[in-house]
Structures are given as structure tokens and as C-alpha cells.
Amino acid sequence: SMENTQHIVIIGGGITGLSTAFYLFKSAEEQQLPIRITLLEAKSRIGGKIRTELFQGFVMEKGPDSFLERKISAKQLAIDLGIEDQLVRNQTGQAYILHQSRLHPIPEGSVMGVPTRLSPFISTRLFSPVGKMRAALDLLLPRQTLDKDVSVGSFFRHRLGNDVVDHLIEPLLSGIYGGNLDQLSLKATFPQFAQMEEKYRSLILAMKKSRSTNLPGKPKGQFLTLKNGLYAFVEAIEKKLPSNTIHRNSVVKAIEKTDKNYQIQLENGKPLTADAVIVTTPYPTLTQMLPSIDLPKPPNHTPATTVATVILGFDDQTEVETPYEGTGFVVPRTENTTITACTWTHKKWPHTTPDGKVLLRFYIGRPGNAAIVAESDSSILEHVQKDMAKVMNIRKQPSFYRITRWREANPQYTVGHTEWVKQLEVHLNSNLPGLFLAGAPYRGVGIPDCIDQGKRAVQEVLQFLNL
Ligand code: FAD
Fold first, then answer.
1. What pLDDT does residue 198 have?
2. In which band, very low, low, confident or very high, does the pLDDT at 370 lie, cut at 50, 70 and 90?
3. Ligand 1 atom closest to Cα of 450?
4. What are phi and psi of 134, to 5 degrees?
5. How far apart are CA 432 and CA 276, in angstroms?
6. Is the CB of 116 under 6 A from ligand 1?
7. Is the CB of residue 270 less than 8 Å from the CB of residue 17?
8. Is 252 in the pocket of ligand 1 (CB under 6 A)?
9. Residue 377 CA to chain centroid, in angstroms?
10. CA angle in degrees (0–180, nearest 5) for 379-385-388
11. Partners of 58 in beta bridges
């Protein structure tokens, strides 16, 4: 009966909140569970960081543009939503690093910057001869005894030296975390490297071993997206949910614990009563919603990184000439450019661009250097075009552009992060039973990580409600 119906409130309508709602609803249907779900989203649009724009035959991603196939839950979500026919895989092609104002191919056989083959490393001009010899020391150096978390930077600097870290590993990895490598937690981001060292001692040997077990054949792309953009996930989920589930323009101000349940205070409108709550907002918002709870402080607290994506569209391939064949490039901090990465989107994702046209996407903004993102569109465009001119020949102004500013958008997993997340959950468990956390601030920022956390929250809530 309605009397026994449990009300579950999900706060935040990004991919975490949406996939939580979807899998909760799916379980409820399959197991005839007496639950009702409300999802509260502050803005007039749902999707959070997922923002696709379809324009004149272009598919433009202003936030995330794809996800790793290897982390299965995003592909699985497409299957569970019945939209797997829309999955598209990226084209493979050479990726580059900007070094001394020229593009250098990423040495063949490097996996996240760790060499697995010798000759491409010996011939690359990305590192000095001394830097190469220092990297080879990895083959001889003993294990580090890591009884506690360390930074990704210090781990790799110890094994491979500064040259390889600053010119290859940093630009490759900070593309994913947008963070400062020397503060980034190894345990929270790439625990597999610590495990490799423990098992094989040398990273180069470990990577060689794992590579040789890969199947032979033509390399295939590691990323997937959806034909009409990632926003198709958002639309498909909304369609599956009962029509009164998602409430837009619903800013949650506070979550208050009462004897039996929770009161959710909104900026506008009547409070809601909830039997369980799942919070998927950025972390600073969580602390605002729980003013009287003294949450454990995050380690070396660094605000989430501010970045912007800059998209340029050209009508004709002859207007932009690149002497390099490939999918794009990343830029180390040492280069002093505004752009930190560039994707030749029309090459990496041909379905996004009408034939013969060009779509480019750049990132700007680094940790501790967000000022550029606050500049005007025209100033940003000028900086981007100046950097572009180093490696491409631009004959005409782009026919359109999009600049999307992402303020404090990429959570920073600093050293000690994993321990903090555990403490936070233990603390909430004893002070606010029935309130659960999921999303990018905690157990991974990638879309598949967010979906995994949503599924985990579903299990936790159902267990809490004895369902
Ligand atoms: P969000 O998307 O931030 O959603 C949180 C929601 O909570 C928002 O909609 C917000 O409005 C709402 N909210 C906030 N406060 C309140 C409140 N008080 N009341 C109600 N609602 C509130 N990942 C990949 O896997 N691949 C990529 O290619 C990739 N590229 C990226 C590019 C950029 C520019 C960025 C910023 C991120 C990228 N990521 C990528 C990471 C990934 O997109 C995000 O980690 C993920 O989308 C976050 O989802 P979320 O639901 O946890 O949070």
C-alpha cells in the first residue's frame, strides 16, 4: 500500500544521480519493491557535466566526449537502456606531445607514459639522453616500500626520473585528472602501478608482461561514445523514469535528520520527507547542505580544477592545414601555452562532423592557473589561435566557436583521498544512517566510475531499507 511506500530522494541530476535513479527504478520494477523515487536537480537542465550540442550536422561535446570501454559500466548502461546500437568507437591514430613548439609522436609502446618497448624510446626527441638513461634505471631500482599513499608524481619520478614525468606522463595523465601530478593520490587514481611495482619491481618489465598477453592484431580504439553525443544517455534515462521523478529548478538548501527520516529543505517550495537520501552533488555543496555536521576534512584540501573547452568549427578542410596525421596532442606544463590539449575531433570521431568540414576541441586552464578561463571569449580565442599557429596553418577564421567554462569542476584526489572517503562514509553511517554519497568527488571521476557509484548506492539504500 502507499502507507508502506519508501521515499528515496536523489540529489543532483548528473550522470551519477540519473544512473542511480535508473537502476533503482529498474530494481523496483523487477522485484516489485514498494519505493518511490524523486530526483532533485538545481538547474533547469539535467545532465550535469554532460553537455552535448547538435548544430548544423556537428555533434559538439562541451564536457566529457567519451568513456573507456574497459570500465564496463557505461557500455552496460547503454545496453540496459536499449541504445547500444548508438555506440561508436574512436578511430585510432597517432597522438602527439607538444615539445619545444613542435609535435612529437608519443613513443610507440608507451602505456600511460611508461615505456614497454625500447627502440621508440631511444629514438624519441622528447627526452634528453640523460633522461632516457634515468628512465632505464627503473629496470634496476629496488621496490619502494609504500605502506602509505604517495603522489603519482613522486612515484613516477622515483622510478623513471623527472624528464619522462614532465614531458610525457604529466601531460598524458593530467588530461584525465586535470590535477597537479605531485599532489595527485596514486592510490585513488592509478593503484595498479603500485601493485605492478610490488609484483614485478620494475614498471617497464611489468608493462612488457601485461602487453605481451594482449591479443595480436590491429589496435582498436579504447573509447566509446554515442552517435548523437553523451546527452543521449540523459534523454534515454529520463524516458525510462516515471514522469514525476525528475524535478528541475530544485535547489536543495539543507538536509535535516528527524527521528524517523529526513527533511529536505528546498530554496523554493515545500520541504520533502525522505526515508533515504543519495547525494551526488559536488562535495562543497554537501557540506553546505549539512551545516551542523562536522564532516572529516579532505586531505590537503585543493579546490576542484577550473578548465574550459574551446570548440572551433571550419567549413572546409583547406582552411586548416595540419602537417601531422593523427587524432590530437597534449601539452606539458613546461611549454608555456594556454592550451593544454587539442583533439582533431573530425579525425578521432568522424561521425561528429559533416564530410569535408573540421571540428577542433581544445582544453585550457591548469590547476592553480584558472585566470585564463575568466578572460573574455575574444581573448581566449586569440590565445588559442596563437598556440594553434605553432602546429597548424589556419587560413581563415573559424565559422563558429563554443567556449564552455567549467569552474571548480574536476575534483582533486590528493594524497590520502581513499582514506578520507572511507572516514567520510563511516562518519555518515553513524551520524546520518540512510544518507549515502556517490559521484565524481569520491570513487573516480570517469563516467563509468560515476555509474558504478550509482549502482553501489542503489545496493546500499535497498539494504538500509531492508528491501
Ligand atoms: P555532475 O555532473 O557535476 O552532477 C551534479 C549535479 O548536481 C549537477 O547537475 C548540479 O547542478 C547538481 N546540484 C549541485 N548542487 C545542487 C543542489 N544544492 N541541489 C540540487 N542539485 C544540485 N569523464 C569521462 O569519463 N570521459 C570524458 O571524456 C570526460 N571529460 C570531461 C571533460 C570535462 C570538461 C569535465 C568537467 C569532466 C569530464 N569527465 C569525463 C568527468 C565526468 O564528466 C564527470 O566526472 C561526471 O560527469 C560527473 O558526474 P556527476 O553526476 O558525479 O556530477
1. 92
2. confident
3. 52
4. -65, -40
5. 10
6. no
7. no
8. yes
9. 25
10. 145
11. 55
Backbone φ and ψ for 216, nearest 5 degrees, come out as: -70, 170
CB within 8 A of 184, min separation 6: which ones? 151, 152, 153, 173, 177, 412, 413, 414, 415
> Cell numbers at residue 176, please?
584525465
| pLDDT of 214 strictly over 60 | no
The CA distance from 42 to 21, in Å, is 16
Residue 67 Cβ contacting ligand 1 at under 6 Å: yes
Residues 6+ apart with CB under 8 A from 413: 177, 179, 184, 185, 188, 189, 445
Q: Is the CB of 175 under 6 A from ligand 1?
A: no
Helix, strand or coil, per DSSP, at residue 292: coil
Cβ contact 60:359 at 8 Å: yes
Determine the angle formed by the axes of helices 73-80 and 447-464, rounding to 10 degrees. 70
* The ligand 1 atom nearest the CA atom of 65: 28
HSE at residue 85, side-chain half, CA atoms within 13 A, is: 1
Pairing relationship of beta strands 114-115 and 35-40 according to DSSP bridges: unpaired
272, three cell numbers? 520533502
Residue corresponding to grid cell 640523460: 130
Label residue 2 by pLDDT band (50, 70, 90). low
Question: What is the average per-residue pLDDT within 274-297?
Answer: 96
Mutate to test the pocket of ligand 1, among 18, 174, 281 (most ligand atoms within 8 A of CB): 281
Q: Which of 15, 332, 284 is nearest to 166 (CA)?
A: 332
Collapsing DSSP to helix, strand or coil, 2 comes out as: helix
Q: What is the Rg, in whole angstroms, of the alpha carbon atoms belonging to the chain? A: 23
pLDDT higher than 90, residue 179 = no
C-alpha cell at 446: 570517469
| Structural contact between residues 130 and 151, judged by C-beta atoms closer than 8 angstroms | no
Assess contact for 16 and 440: CB atoms under 8 A: yes
With a cut of 90, say whether residue 108 has pLDDT above it.
no
Determine the distance separating the centroid of ligand 1 and the alpha carbon of 440, expressed in angstroms. 7
Taking the CA of residue 251 as reference, the ligand 1 atom at the shortest distance is 19
pLDDT at 299 over 70: yes
* CA atoms within 13 Å, Cβ hemisphere of 60: 22
Kindly write down the DSSP assignment for every residue of 424-450, as one continuous string: HHHHHHHHSTTEEE-STTTS-SSHHHH
Distance (angstroms) between ligand 1 centre and the Cα of 67 equals 14
What gap in Å lies between CA 101 and CA 385, rounded to an integer? 14
Give which of 179, 238, 227, 281 is closest to 61, Cα–Cα: 227
β-strands 87-89, 67-68 pairing: unpaired
Ligand 1 atom 39, closest CA: 64
**Cα(171)–Cα(336) distance, rounded to whole angstroms?**
13
